[in-house]
Amino acid sequence: MRVIGTVVEQESGKPLEGLRVRAYDKDLIFDDKLGDTLTDASGKFEISYTEAHFRDLEETEPDVYIRIYDSTGKKLLYTTEKAVRRSASVLERFDVKISKAKLG
After folding, report:
1. How many folded domains does the chain comprise?
2. Could you report the per-residue pLDDT of 27-59, keeping only the tens digit for each?
3. What CA–CA distance (Å, rounded) separates 79 from 60?
4. Which of 14, 27, 28, 67 shows a CA-CA span of 20 to 30 A to 56?
């Protein structure tokens, strides 16, 4: 299973390199971290994970969302947590645009 996508600057469309992307499985009590990576020179990212990363109780499909942080991994720049992809497919794609103002 994979989460892939691109991150670009909203105003210019310029790829954003070196941002930390983290993928999660939304649960009732505690969200499972599926993995994390940095965006490459083209603003692309890919996170691979297995059923072992999200499976608990009777859960058979993850409910995926991502968070994007600055290069330190501390400042949250973007999240899809309010638009969780329920029963995610084997491949989920996120193409994200972040405004200059957020990048600081």
Report:
1. 1
2. 888 899 999 999 999 999 999 999 887 876 666
3. 24
4. 67
